[in-house]
Please model this.
Amino acid sequence: MSASFPAYRSRRKRQTAAVRALVQEVRLDVRDLIQPLFVTDGTGPPQSIDSMPGMYRYAPGGLVAECGRLVDLGIPAVAVFPQIEPGLKDGSGSHVHAADNLIYRAVRAVKQAYPQLWLIADVALDPYTDHGHDGVLTADGRDVDNDATIPVLQALGIRLAESGADWVAPSDMMDGRVGGLRTALDEAGHAGTGILAYAAKFASAYYGPFREAVGSSRAAGTTSLDKRTYQLNPANRREAVADALLDDQEGADALMVKPAGPYLDVLHALRRRTDLPLAAYQVSGEYAQIHAAAQLGWLDYASVRDESLLAIKRAGADMILTYFAAEWAEQQA
Ligand code: PBG
Model:
C-alpha cells in the first residue's frame, strides 16, 4: 500500500522529551562557557552598567570574590577587561608599561586566589589610548600604525603572562599579532602561555555596550569609533576565513569568531577549515538586545538566551564567551 504522504515520518523522533533528548545533536555545558568580567580601580562596590543588565565593573577585590562564585558554579574560564582611568591614557598606550597597571594587579590577584580558573586577558591598546583606537597612530594621525604597535603588544603580552594569564588574546584584528606574540612569549620564557586569537573579528555595531563599559566609546570630537581599517567588513566571509587561518599558521592555540550570533556562517565555515578549537564571543550588543526585548515583554528571556547559546554551539563553537555564563550555570544548578 502506498501512503499519500512520505513513509518516513520525521515527527516520530519528536514525540516525547525522552526521545528528543536521545536524538539531540549538541548540548550546552557549563564547561563550554567563559565569563567576560570588567575590572575598575579602587575599593568601591560593583558598578552596574546601564546597557548590560546584571553586569558590573568590579574593583579588584570584588573581582576576586566574583571569580570565587564562578568557580563554585563550575565555570572554567574568565576573560578580564580593564576600565583604565582616563588620566592614565595617552596616544601611545604607554600605561601598558606600568608595572602597577590595573590589569596586571587584577590578573595576579585572581590567579593567586583561584589558580584552577583559566584566565584570559586581551592584548590590544584600546583600554590605554586616549583616542580609543586599538593601536598607536601613524604620524599624520589618520590610521593605526600596524607594525609600530607590535612591540607594545609584545610587552603587554609578556607582562600579562608574568602576572598569571593563561591565554593572552590579541584582539585588535591587525596583522602579525599572533606570530609576534608567540615569538615574544617564547623568548621571555612563557612557552606555556597560550594564544586565543580574535581570528575573525568584525567591525560591528554590537560592541557598543562594551565600549561604554570600559570607556573606549569614542575618539575626541567624534560620535563613534570607526575601526574599519582593521576589523573585518561584515559582508566578507571568505576574507574572514582566510584571515583566521593566518592566525592558525602563526601559532594560535584557539581561534575566535566575534560577534557570534550574526556570524554563525563564518563560524561554520571556519570549523570546516581548521582543526584548532573554536571560540565564539557572544558580545555585549547581543546580550543587550535580548535583555531589552525581554524588558519590553516582547520575548521570553530565558528561552531566547538559551536558544542563542545553543545555536552558537551548533554552528561549531567549542567554547563560548558570553555574559550569560554565570546565570546559565546558576539556572542548571
Ligand atoms: C577590544 C575589545 C572589544 C570587545 C572585546 N575586546 C571592543 C572593540 O573592539 O571595540 C567587544 C566585546 C563586546 O562587545 O562584548 N579590542
